[in-house]
Amino acid sequence: AHRLTRILDQQLGEAAYAAGDEYTIADIAIFPWMRNPERRGLNYDEFPNVKRWFEKINARPAVQRGLQVLAEAQAANQAPHSDKSWEIMFGKVQFQQR
């Protein structure tokens, strides 16, 4: 986690976003993995470019709306996936011929 965050920090030292100067699907894909850095033993104060980028992405209105939907689902104890969907994605079903 430290190595990848350091690489991202270097990239963000050269550009505003992960893939350059524009907000792209790369930022959208990376953002969820960068939430809760303490779970991976990270302190974003050690990665100033990542910290700036994360705060910028986190402040976007659409991101805030998405995080609110997630928080509401978690508060209602609604699993985003059923046992069946987990089996399709990660169990034996994913390898079955269809």
Overall description:
The protein has 98 residues and is an all-alpha fold. It is built from five helices and no strands. The protein is globular, with a radius of gyration of 17 Å. The relative contact order is 0.11. The model has no long low-confidence stretch (mean pLDDT 91).
What's the structural blueprint in terms of helices and strands?
Blueprint: H1 2-14, H2 25-34, H3 48-58, H4 61-75, H5 83-90
Helix pairs in contact: 1-3
Q: Count of DSSP E strands? A: 0
Q: Main β-sheet: number of strands, strand sense, barrel status?
A: none
Instruction: Please tally the helical runs, counting DSSP H or I stretches of 4 or more residues.
Output: 5
State the helical fraction.
Answer: 55-70%
Runs in which pLDDT lies below 50 for 5 or more consecutive residues are: none
Task: Write a compact overview of the structure shown.
The protein is 58% helix and 0% strand. The protein is mostly helical and 98 residues long. The model has no long low-confidence stretch (mean pLDDT 91).
Q: What attributes does this structure have?
A:
mainly alpha; single chain; 98 residues
